[in-house]
Amino acid sequence: MAIVVNLDVMMAKRKISLGELAERIDITPANLSILKTGKAKAIRFSTLEAICKELNCQPADILEYKEEE
């Protein structure tokens, strides 16, 4: 997929666990894990907004476009 999810990088920089972030943004740890591992096919803007607010970052810090070869 051309969209790379760097959520794990931002979580590590902010020193927050998956369970803690999931609780803070009111999403199940399983759904957050799907997003974190790059297996998600979509993300709601409200979820992206909550993640960015909690991690104090921009959407581009989490989502990255890479051209496929």
Tags for this model:
Cro/C1-type_HTH, two-stranded antiparallel ribbon, 69 residues, 434 Repressor (Amino-terminal Domain)
What's the structural blueprint in terms of helices and strands?
Blueprint: E1 3-5, H1 7-14, H2 18-25, H3 29-36, H4 45-55, H5 59-62, E2 63-65
Antiparallel strand pairs: 1-2
Which sequence of strands runs across the widest sheet?
A: 1-2
- Calculate the mean pLDDT score and round it: 94
How many domains comprise the coordinates?
1
Quaternary arrangement of the chains shown?
Answer: single chain
Derived structural class: mainly alpha
Distance between the termini: 11 Å
CATH topology name, in short, is 434 Repressor (Amino-terminal Domain)
Gross geometry: globular
What would you say the CATH architecture is? Answer: Orthogonal Bundle
Notes on the structure:
This protein is mainly α and 69 residues long. It has one domain (3-65): lambda repressor-like DNA-binding domains (434 Repressor (Amino-terminal Domain)). The protein contains 5 helices and 2 strands, in the order βαααααβ. It has helices spanning 7-14, 18-25, 29-36, 45-55, 59-62, and strands at 3-5, 63-65. It has a two-stranded antiparallel sheet with strand order 1-2. The chain is globular and about 35 Å long.
